[in-house]
UniProtKB/TrEMBL annotation:
GO molecular function: 4 iron, 4 sulfur cluster binding; fumarate hydratase activity; metal ion binding
The UniProt record lists the keyword Iron: yes
Region feature Disordered, mapped onto this chain: 334-354
Protein name in the entry: Hydro-lyase, Fe-S type, tartrate/fumarate subfamily, alpha subunit
Cleaved signal peptide residues: none
Lineage: Bacteria, Bacillati, Actinomycetota, Coriobacteriia, Eggerthellales
Length: 354
């Protein structure tokens, strides 16, 4: 049986997620900071972690943003093979984003065009959305992330040659962290994408950030790679806030994919200490039920269209469907129509008759 995810479900989930993400640190990140605080031996690093933990507590209690950069909105809908979407499932997302940012008084950080027009859009739209099919029957979940500019600016895509191998990946990640990690507000969560193509590998890295820091990879080989990469990152000694210490990153999360025999695509997507993301499960609805409801609404609309009154300016003008005799029964005297037209024209309103 076909099941459906509707655009209203997606928009409602995004609208609800934004103020929570902006003000409440995800539980796995908060716990990770607390563990890092207990293990940190560098006084400056420990002081930074104390401030981050205190800041998160104040933000949650006072319902104010964790960070002044409340980010761009990234939305990814994951659906299984038996789940369908009809039309543009993201059609209402921008409206949801605009309302959420306005009502929660969050900073708007999106410009109209990266090069041609860097005027602020004024409502933090557009959101950046994609649909991602997964091989899980019945799966329907929505990933939402508020991504700050500093952490994205510290990210990169590199097309390595296959001969670079695993060591090339380690070296490139460490190079990226050394060059840019301090500007990304550590301790970091680092998403690493390996494989696919030039245009897809960055998406792998971003989706990797969705896995909680306390959830190891299911594959033993991937788990070992993540541990090796995390050890290499923390060995840099950049530390919390870039002021030195043992915890430069809370976790490294890796997502891999097939690729061309001549390529080794690598993407590194930095996530800051305020790793604001959430995964929302969506309830699929049977297509037959939605179709039946739509049919009832259509019939109801047609029935209601038999006699509907529209207001334009000072006049109430009946719109009637029926025979010529019926229309004649509701005809207005010409003088009344002229009077209504003049009143509406004075008010700058459109006038429509019958």
């Amino acid at each position: 049986m076909e099941t459906i995810i509707t655009k209203s479900q997606v928009a409602d989930a995004v609208y609800a997620a934004i103020p929570k993400l902006a003000c409440v640190l995800p539980a796995d990140i908060e716990a990770g900071l607390a563990v890092a605080r207990e293990l940190e031996g560098n006084p400056r690093g420990r002081a930074v972690l104390d401030q981050l933990i205190e800041n998160a507590a104040i933000a949650a209690e006072d319902r104010v943003p964790i960070c002044q950069d409340t980010g761009t909105v990234w939305v990814s809908l994951e659906i299984g093979p038996d789940v369908a979407v009809r039309g543009d499932v993201f059609a209402d997302v921008d409206d949801a984003v605009a309302r959420a940012y306005d009502e929660a008084r969050l900073r708007k950080s999106v410009v109209r065009d990266a090069v041609l027009d860097r005027a602020n859009t004024g409502d933090n739209t557009p959101a950046f959305c994609d649909v991602h099919p997964v091989d899980e029957p019945g799966a329907a979940r929505l990933h939402v992330m508020l991504k700050g500019g500093g952490s994205d600016n510290a990210s990169r895509v590199v097309m390595l040659v296959p001969g670079a191998g695993k060591q090339g990946i380690v070296d490139e990640l460490v190079r990226c962290v050394r060059e840019k990690g301090a500007n990304a507000c550590p301790p970091l969560v680092v998403g690493v994408g390996i494989g696919s193509t030039f245009d897809k590998v960055a998406g792998l890295a971003k989706r990797a950030l969705m896995r909680p820091v306390d959830e190891p990879a299911a594959d033993d080989r991937l788990r070992a790679l993540e541990e090796e990469l995390l050890a290499a990152v923390n060995a840099t000694g950049i530390g919390p806030g870039g002021l030195g210490g043992r915890t430069t990153a809370l976790a490294v999360r890796v997502a891999t994919a097939p690729c061309h025999i001549a390529a080794l695509p690598l993407a590194i997507n930095m996530g800051c200490s305020a790793m604001r993301r959430i995964t929302v499960p969506l309830a699929c609805q049977p297509a037959e039920r939605l179709d039946a409801a739509a049919s009832r609404r259509t019939r109801s609309s047609r029935d209601a269209a038999g006699l509907r009154t529209e207001v334009r300016g000072a006049c109430a003008i009946p719109r009637i469907s029926g025979t010529a005799e019926t229309l004649a029964d509701f005809a207005e005297p010409a003088s009344d129509r002229s009077r209504c037209a003049r009143s509406a024209a004075d008010a700058g309103e459109e006038v429509r008759h019958g």
